[in-house]
Write a structure and sequence with these properties.
The protein is α/β, with parallel strands linked by helices and 377 residues long. It has 13 helices and 18 strands. It has a single domain, classed as Ribonuclease Z/Hydroxyacylglutathione hydrolase-like (Metallo-beta-lactamase, Chain A, 4-Layer Sandwich). Helix content is 27%, strand content 24%. A ten-stranded mixed beta sheet has the order 9-8-7-5-3-2-1-16-17-18. The chain has a six-stranded mixed beta sheet with strand order 10-11-12-13-14-15, with helices on one face. The longest helix has 16 residues. The chain starts with a strand and ends in a 9-residue tail after the last strand.
């Protein structure tokens, strides 16, 4: 079977795909110092991932992808992973990244450490180093700015074309036939990178991850911090190219920690009303599907309804409404499952009979807590 794991890291993102053949793909990384304190509900991500890798008798991920370089998606990464561009980031029991996946904006952004943070600058240097070396990296989107950057560094676009994947294409390296998975890139679009100098959420990585299990396929929509305008554009473009099936989902990792801005420009008093094409995306959920919010607990209180920062209860109610309409299974919050005091990673198992949830109840045993999704894609 394949697995998808969502880690309780607060208002941040970290998820892992573990394939039946043993390959591991980590998307985003957020480790907070707070998690190392006794009693913290946040997972100690560094410790947890090290334990999982040790159990699998390895010290590397086949892929580590950063959807974008905001702090809640990269926090602690430069202390955890081995980076090739400087000796001080090597060895010392650091975890190896066999292939780094980044949006083109992460190569091109010119912000300083004062503007974006030191970790962003370090990861940008690593991505640039790997692209210059021509190995261990995949860049998503091929804007004119990337062509110019390569030429400024004595390279050509043609010499690095094999390391670049555009929106609307499947990333090489994984196939349904050999790995039971493929990654269809929804975003970033070229214009989102060429259109401005600032690294923006609209230029982040968004994938339809399709799994093969037996004769059935299942779809996981992995989204960074996209806003409603970006999602509307993805729906429009995907349909115009006849790729409607890439909008369907059995699991939807919703954007930006359940922010209403991923649905509409208006929060709504009690419930957010999604924009038309975002509504189409929500209605593309399959029977038995799940929505996952990587966020803090979502409170239906006066304070919860009025707070500016996500998560937003109005957005949650919208998602739950459409999940019911497609006969979905459940809306899950990473910092609430199984409880707010000590949340555990949310683990989905994908096998030919469907998608099930795995809940760890002791260090040596686990149980399945839900029935398989009744519909295969």
């Amino acid at each position: 079977m394949h697995k998808i794991v969502f880690y309780p890291v607060g208002n941040g993102d970290t998820s892992q795909i573990i394939l039946e053949n043993g390959k591991r793909i980590l998307l985003d990384f957020r480790h907070c110092k707070e998690s190392e304190e006794e009693g913290s509900p946040l997972i100690n991500l560094k410790k947890r991932l090290k334990e999982e890798l040790k159990e699998a008798n390895r010290n590397s991920f086949d892929v580590v992808g950063f959807t974008h370089a905001d702090q809640d998606h990269i926090c602690g990464s430069t202390e955890f992973f081995e980076l090739w561009h400087a000796d001080k980031y090597k060895g010392d029991d650091r975890v190896v990244i066999s292939e780094l996946w980044v949006p083109a904006a992460m190569i091109l952004e010119e912000a300083t450490a004062d503007q974006k943070g030191q970790e962003f600058v370090i990861l940008r240097q690593e991505a640039r180093h790997r692209l210059k070396e021509g190995k261990g990296i995949r860049v998503f989107s091929k804007p004119e700015k990337l062509k110019a950057w390569l030429e400024e560094n004595g390279l050509t676009l043609e010499s690095r074309q094999h390391l670049i994947t555009d929106a609307g294409k499947i990333a090489p390296g994984f196939t349904l036939q050999s790995d039971g998975v493929e990654f269809f890139c929804h975003s970033p679009f070229i214009k989102h990178v060429d259109g401005g100098d600032e690294l923006r959420n609209s230029a982040s990585l968004i994938f339809n991850v399709r799994f093969q299990a037996g004769t059935n396929t299942f779809d996981y929509l992995a989204v960074g911090d996209a806003d409603w305008e970006n999602l509307e554009e993805i729906v429009k473009t995907t349909k115009s190219h006849g790729n409607d099936d890439r909008l369907k989902w059995d699991i939807y990792n919703i954007p930006h920690h359940c922010s209403y801005l991923a649905l509409s420009d208006k929060k709504g008093e009690s419930e957010t009303e999604p924009k038309p094409r975002v509504k189409e995306l929500l209605e593309a959920g399959k029977e038995g599907s799940y929505i996952v919010s990587s966020s803090r607990p979502i409170a239906d209180t006066k304070e919860g309804r009025e707070q500016d920062q996500p998560p937003h209860i109005q957005a949650k109610k919208c998602y739950e409404k459409y999940l019911r309409s497609v006969k979905g299974a459940k809306f899950l919050v990473t910092m609430e499952d199984p409880n707010e005091t000590k949340p555990e990673p949310i683990v989905f198992q994908i096998e030919s009979s469907g998608i099930t949830r795995e809940r760890r109840i002791t260090s040596a045993a686990s149980i399945i807590t839900s029935t398989p999704a009744p519909r295969a894609g």
